[in-house]
Amino acid sequence: MRALCRNALAVLMLSLAGLPGPGGHSAASTREPARTAKPDSASAGRFIPVYKAAKQDDNKAEARQWREWKILEDFSEAMNDYIRIPDDIQVVAEECDEPNAFYQANVISLCYELGVSEREMFTQADNDADEVNDELYKSLMGTLFHEAGHAFIDVLELKITGKEEDVADQLVAYMLTNDEVGEDYLMTVSYAYSLSAEQASSLDDLPFYDAHSLDAQRAVNFLCYIYGSNPAKFQYFVDDELLHEDRAAGCEGEYRQMVDAWDALLEGKVK
After folding, report:
1. Distance CA 175, CA 114 (A)
2. Nearest to residue 252, comparing CAs of 266, 271, 232?
3. Who has the most CB within 10 Å: 25, 44, 204, 253?
4. Each residue of 76-92: b (16+ CB within 10 Å) or e?
5. pLDDT digits (tens, 9 = 90+) for 60-92
6. Could you tell me the residue ranges of all domains in the chain?
């Protein structure tokens, strides 16, 4: 099962890598293509990209950029090449009156306000337009993968334990630790959560009540999964104190456990 899933994920990453990212990103996967699934009327659903009009000026700017990037098309194509689902899932870019993304009833919503907020965050940290665009594209793609986790759990009726938000984060890591292209995306996702965590100035700013883990925890968890996928390659995470050595000691086991779990959950469902 692991070989089938990981080869299918190579196709997914090839879809992402072969499409022009905002920073001119392009790469090729060397993994073998996934096996072709036989047509199945019970798995005829598709991910469908939908851009809704924006009214606010900042949101209009994001809407134009997202359309230029074809970010929803990139994501939908990758998902359609990867997973069999029973019904269509719309992937919608829209105004939400808050920086957010969510899944509900066969609809993944990615809010223009999230792009505005993260663009400002990356700009304050990096102050380079091309770098900001590259980081934002990768971060938003990671968010879409997270929401895909919720969608998979719902429409495929996956049996999970623990917080669903954490499980959805694990799917992001599962998909993006397949090759160097995915690892780069996942490191940007971790970086985004690190920057977000730095915006909290006191304990009162931390949403301990929320279903999501804290941003600082999510950032470290993603680094742990990357490190666990290849400890020798990512030893610099520990050497440079990006990942505490105490956490790193268990990351390889955490990663293997996570991969085995998602392999089992998705058995017979990938193309």
Report:
1. 22
2. 232
3. 25
4. bbbbbbbbbbeeebbbb
5. 999 999 999 999 999 999 999 999 999 999 999
6. 2-265
